[in-house]
UniProtKB/TrEMBL annotation:
SMART domains: THN. Pfam families: Thaumatin (PF00314). The lineage of its organism: Eukaryota, Viridiplantae, Streptophyta, Embryophyta, Tracheophyta. Keywords: Signal. Gene3D superfamilies: Thaumatin. InterPro entries: Osmotin/thaumatin-like_sf, Thaumatin. It comes from Hibiscus sabdariffa (roselle). It comes from the Eukaryota. Residues 1-21 form the signal peptide. This is Thaumatin-like protein.
Length: 244
């Protein structure tokens, strides 16, 4: 931890007003490569690049509900005008990627913040690009169980079990991530749409394979195991990329 750069962003500008937030997120990039943090809607992050081994202490606004994800292998083109990423690109053409939805595959971190209560989940419904972990520091559950607020994560590389039909490749044909079957195959039974809603929305062969590696992540649209936890009173939430 001694070699990690720590940045503190305590004040956010929300709708033209300067406000204080008491929900602290620690974004810890344990990956061996740089990543670019993205969110929809915006979290007001003016410097999205996180180098390897950096920790950023970031104050989230309350209330806020949305998704956070990472972009990987980002660079400008030869003209030094258009900025693109191999995974998680939002089509902005610049390093700033606040609010536009990402191009899959991406590992999504979904949060709902309201009056110091935080709901959180790791979702593979848009695919997988980077291993992640969400760890509340302290706090107690107010929904999804009782007792201490548990960790949720997906720390294994889905590339180990990604079916060839779901593999996402870069322009050189190298693996960069694993698509969800809904996105890759566009079949209602994988998307839990049309006649596959409600009780008809069931785990499938692909989601079962994902679940074997990432038991604490949601792997298909109807997945409720684990439940979406709601935590109250945590001092902070540590979000670690590439935790192992």
């Amino acid at each position: 931890m001694a070699n990690k750069a720590i940045f503190s962003l305590v004040l956010l500008v929300i709708s033209g007003r300067l406000v204080l937030s008491d929900i602290t997120f620690n974004f810890d990039n344990a990956c061996s490569f740089p990543v670019w943090l993205s969110a929809s809607p915006s979290i007001g992050d003016g410097d999205p690049e996180r180098g390897p081994g950096t920790l950023e202490v970031f104050s989230m606004s309350d209330p806020w509900t949305g998704s956070i994800w990472l972009r990987t292998k980002c660079s400008y083109d030869a003209s030094q005008v258009n900025f693109t990423c191999e995974t998680g690109d939002c089509g902005s053409g610049s390093p700033d990627c606040q609010s536009p939805p990402p191009n899959p595959p991406v590992t999504l971190l979904n949060f709902g913040i309201n009056q110091n209560v935080v709901s959180y989940e790791v979702s593979l419904n848009s695919g997988f690009n980077v291993p992640v972990r969400i760890q509340p520091n302290g706090g107690t559950l107010v929904e999804g169980g009782s007792g201490e607020c548990p960790v949720v994560d997906c720390i294994k590389d889905m590339g180990d079990v990604c079916d060839p039909s779901l593999v996402a490749k870069n322009k050189d044909g190298a693996y960069v991530g694993c698509n969800s079957p809904c996105i890759a195959l566009k079949d209602p039974k994988y998307c839990c749409t049309e006649s596959f809603t409600g009780p008809a929305c069931q785990p499938n062969d692909y989601s079962k394979r994902f679940k074997q590696l990432c038991q604490l992540a949601h792997t298909y649209p109807g997945d409720t195991d684990p439940p979406i936890y709601k935590c109250s009173g945590a001092t902070s939430y540590t979000v670690t990329f590439c935790p192992l």
